[in-house]
Amino acid sequence: MEIGKNNWAIAEGYIPKESHGKFPELESHETVCMLNAGDSPANVEIMIYFSDREPLGPFHEVVEARRTKHLRFNSLEIPKGKDFASTIKSDVPIVVQHTRLDSRQAENALMTTIAYAQN
Question: Which listed CATH number (3.40.50.12370, 2.160.10.10, 2.60.290.11, 2.40.340.10) goes with 5-118?
Fold first, then answer.
């Protein structure tokens, strides 16, 4: 079953410098969640954009057929404490969701939203 789009954007991104709680589970992070419900692997390219410097990337990921992949932006070369945005391009349709865990204090905050899709 093919669902989704090939081009996605997440206009909001921020990885806090501080975290509270058990590492790595409660480390403050941003995550791009990708669903490939199709029958072919998705070859994904991620670009990271900033307000005050040139973009980072492309970063390449594969989301296998009929699988999901949750990639923490923390694993990329993104500096903590800086606003950023991202684009996600795939050679097959996928669904993209954005999640943030902000654990700067003991009372954690979790936020999630579907990314902007454009084909």
Answer: 2.60.290.11
